[in-house]
Automatic annotation (TrEMBL):
Enzyme class: hydrolase
GO biological process terms on file: DNA repair
GO MF annotation list: phosphoglycolate phosphatase activity
Organism: Aliiruegeria lutimaris
InterPro entries in the cross-refs: HAD-like_hydrolase_sf (IPR050155), HAD-like_sf (IPR036412), HAD-SF_hydro_IA (IPR006439), HAD_sf (IPR023214), PGP-like_dom2 (IPR023198)
Organismal lineage: Bacteria, Pseudomonadati, Pseudomonadota, Alphaproteobacteria, Rhodobacterales
Identification of the protein by name: phosphoglycolate phosphatase
GO annotations of cellular component type: cytosol
One Pfam family this sequence matches: Hydrolase
Matching SUPFAM superfamilies: HAD-like (SSF56784)
Pathway membership, UniProt: Organic acid metabolism; glycolate biosynthesis; glycolate from 2-phosphoglycolate: step 1/1
Source organism superkingdom: Bacteria
Catalysed transformations (reactions): 2-phosphoglycolate + H2O = glycolate + phosphate
Length: 223
């Protein structure tokens, strides 16, 4: 039986609006106003909370040492802001859950491996009403390591009861590509995120322009 591992942010769901809102809440709390743009900085949002804070403090002119200190000082506040308003702007990408259900109907195991903290990923998926569709969820803090280390992918497949050699990952960034390479499994990168078709430069085994095409692509790649 085949297994498909999904990344969450930027792959299954566009979470950038709520992530950037949480970061901007931190900057407003410090008296700086909104430092990030919900559209222009969406790609940074998909690289995590620290990346967003770093970008904002850099724009404020902080030097490296002070910048790093401020990022760490505000990180837990960012997580709290995000948890309090985690699904205000977030939407699943068109066709995402239809594709997941089609895969499940074909006997494919599906799970999620994300660099979002596990509790936040659980909260978001339950709020969106889709958690029960996935047989396993591995977050950034589930294991001692996170993607691009191979271990989270290996553990996701194990918790689904699958076999690594019959698995692939669907993601959106170099983190997913590198994790797939480390685990020795194929990688599909979506082209509908902020980076668009620029992800082709990461040389994934396949590109995905719309979730409608995913079940057939999975069948072809894992035949």
């Amino acid at each position: 039986m085949c297994s498909v591992i999904f990344d969450l942010d930027g792959t299954l769901a566009d979470t950038s609006g709520d992530l950037i809102a949480a970061a901007n809440a931190c900057f407003r709390g410090l008296g700086h106003g909104d430092m990030l743009d919900p559209v222009g900085d969406a790609a940074t949002a998909f690289r995590g909370g620290r990346a967003m804070l770093r970008l904002g403090f850099d724009r404020l002119g902080f030097e490296e040492d002070a910048l790093s200190e401020q990022v760490e000082a505000q990180f837990h506040a960012l997580l709290a802001h995000y948890a309090a308003a985690i699904d205000v702007h977030t939407v699943l990408y068109p066709g995402a859950m239809d594709a997941v259900e089609r895969l499940r109907g074909q006997g494919v195991r599906v799970g999620i491996c994300t660099n979002k903290p596990e509790a936040l990923a659980e909260l978001l998926l339950r709020n969106l009403g889709v958690r029960e569709a996935f047989g396993a969820l591995i977050g950034a803090d589930t294991l001692p390591v996170r993607k691009p280390d191979a271990a989270p992918l290996v553990e996701t497949v194990a918790r689904m009861g699958g076999k690594l050699e019959r698995s692939l990952i669907v993601g959106d960034t170099s983190t997913d590509r590198l994790a797939a390479r480390a685990a020795g499994i194929p990688c599909i990168l979506v082209t509908f995120g902020p980076d668009g078709r620029a992800v082709e430069a990461l040389e994934p085994e396949a590109l995905l322009d719309h979730f409608d095409h995913l079940p057939d692509l999975v069948a072809e790649m894992l035949a």
